[in-house]
Amino acid sequence: MSGALTIRAGRRTVEVGRPEKVLFAEDGITKADLATYYRTVSRRMIPHLRGRPLMLERHPDGIGDRGFMQKDIPEHFPDWVHRAELPKEGGTVRYVLCEDAATLVLLADQGCVTPHRWLSRADRPDRPDRLVFDLDPSEDDFAPVRDAARWLRDLLEELRLPSLLMTTGSRGLHVIVPLDRGATFDDVRAFAADVAGVLAARHPDRLTTEARKKARGGRLYLDIQRNAYGQTSVAPYAVRARPGAPVAAPIAWGDLDDPGLDARRWALADAERLLEDNPWSPAPRPRSLGAAADRLRHSRRG
Q1: d(CA 246, CA 256)
Q2: Given a cut of 80, is residue 299 above it in pLDDT?
Q3: pTM for the whole thing?
Q4: H or E element: which one contains 291?
Q5: Coil, helix or strand for 143?
Q6: Rounded to 5 degrees, what angle do the CA atoms 100, 102, 103 make?
Q7: What would you report as the CA-atom Rg of the chain, rounded to the nearest whole angstrom?
Q8: Does the chain have fewer CB atoms within 10 Å around its N or its C terminus?
Q9: How many CB atoms lie within 10 A of CB 230?
Q10: What is the pLDDT of residues 143-167, one digit of tens each?
Q11: Which distant-in-sequence residues (6+ apart) come within 8 Å of 104 by Cβ?
């Protein structure tokens, strides 16, 4: 392939076409830069993707173009890329599964800036092993996001549910609860809605569960909408299609005390620094929602 860049990723070699193509015009970040970043972080990122259907956010003409979201795996993908065919209303969708570094590099070659992952794995797609709260601020001030994250962590600890924290690379933070796959999406979503409702009731002037922006009144929105079959959440270490190429980065709870923290604290240029520490290690044991739901009901009655 003329003009291609060859990248060794694990046991495979992937050719990146038009590697000099600029994808982030304001920053001069090229397709080669994107592919190299994903190869660099692959050992940390792949465990968060393996076995999960992906939705691909593609910007083949750069982030200045609107781009598009793609569920079906591109027909021309090589046979070694893993796939999962899953039901949807009226048919099925064949999704990409990213099982190795070579697939990550291949996705970058296709202009996939951001992979978004399911909250369940393809072998049991109706049984999520992640619950996600999206803390979505109404303005650019990050202080309300910090407060909401702390309050949510404290409530989850009352329910004996360990949680993980991640910048989104966009506006807010994600709080993630590892689950044991014992509950359906409907049950997980109902539980998440109850948790959000309790938290909003504790801080009614600061938090809301109101999905309509006009009704939020400047309060931070506790978004639980991703907790449903076929919905996705931005993957850890994924690059976002925004100026500066910010990254959705796992962080430690103590990082909330860093005055420089915001949703775009980490970026593509920080690849090596991102790998210096693993704030999600050791990983908390996945939990059942049954006992937590009982504790939440008791809390609401109290």
Answers
A1: 18
A2: no
A3: 0.96
A4: helix 290-301
A5: helix
A6: 70
A7: 19
A8: C
A9: 18
A10: 999 999 999 999 999 999 999 999 9
A11: 9, 38, 39, 42, 45, 46, 49, 98, 115
How do strand 68-70 and strand 112-118 relate by DSSP bridges? unpaired
**What six digits make up the tokens of 17?**
């076409």
Where helices occur in 8-94 by DSSP H, the ranges are: 31-45
Contacts of 71 (CB under 8 A, 6+ apart): 55, 56, 93, 95
Token pair of 222 as six digits: 């506790």
- The token duo for 268 is 């593509």
Say how many CA atoms lie within 13 Å of 12 toward its Cβ. Answer: 16
Q: DSSP class of residue 285?
A: P
Q: How would DSSP label each residue in 68-89?
A: EEE-SPPTTS-TTSEEEEEEET
Residue 301 confidence class, pLDDT cut points 50, 70, 90: low
pLDDT in tens, 58-73: 999 999 999 999 999 9
